Protein: Glutamine--fructose-6-phosphate aminotransferase [isomerizing]
Amino acid sequence: EKEGYAHFMIKEINEQPKGVSETLNRRLNKEGNIELDSIKITKEDLDKIDKVYIVACGTAYHAGLVGKYAIEKYAKIPVICDIASEFRYSDPFIDENTLFIAISQSGETLDTLAALREAKRKGARILSVVNVVGSSVARESHDVFYTWAGPEIAVASTKAYTTQLTAMYMIALHMAITKESMSKEKYDSIIEELKNMPEKIQKILDDYVIAQHLADTQFNNESVFFMGRGLDINAAYEGSLKLKEISYINSFAIAAGELKHGTIALIEDDTLVIALATQDRLYEKMLSNIKEVKARGAYVVAIAKEGNKEIEKSADTVIYIPDTMDELTPILSVVPQQLFSYYMAVARGCDVDKPRNLAKSVTVE
Ligand code: M6R
Structure:
């Protein structure tokens, strides 16, 4: 039931603090360390694993891209993240020293399931990150990490994504501490910050009028560009997918450094550009990219961390997210993008929960 909300999508967007909190807290023991239920990946297992494949479709794939970043950074194992329908028809380097991670909200996506079976046949250990308990992907995996998002009804995935991100950070942290590739202090500090995420998401949700107002002034656009660098581009891929699938606006996301290699040709007066600039290390670079598109007439909405006031000089509008560690920003930066997409679709009179041509679960090729 929609419990007073106009659509399932906005209800589910608002359920994210709870989903992230459940996903995290159910797996923290009383010492505050991560315990992955029945997942028994030992230090010996991890020492053998020389690469990880993360495979998924759509939003789950976008969560996988962030997972790749976290596993490489924390656990220092190389990761390949692939789209399930591509993985199936490539010649992946899979053997018994590979850990294969499938991410799927429904656990029934056919391409993801087929990729999993192929990896299993080649001897990989299969870990899945799934929301629906007892689904096919879960049943066919060696280990399962359940995201505690609760049922997701809207076709556009929202709370599944933020809980999948939480799961990927936890898996990466667990691998890192087991492999001893991270200090206990660092591990504890990231877990502490993950615990703050529900409250920080809530703060963005409480300010929903910012996204609503933006949508009310921008809903007539027929194309929107998203850009970012580093982890921001992954969150931008997700923001762009949300917008196109429910509002039918032609949108795509590009790595901001790629602008000059083609896409900048499309920028003209009043082109709407959503620029994510949450990564401290890349902040100055993003400011230059914002100036580049502004110089061609773009209307720039920046998403930045609180306190980065300087960006107000370059962007037309700034949406702030609460300050956090750079590597955790996607959990927060996706939220204003979800809200923006939602209000754009509402303003355009679209069928938000059941967009045309799409199904909640893709069980065909
Ligand atoms: O159930 P799954 O997570 O395997 O689904 C994967 C995609 O079909 C799904 O995320 C899709 O991209 C959503 N409509 C995105 O909002």
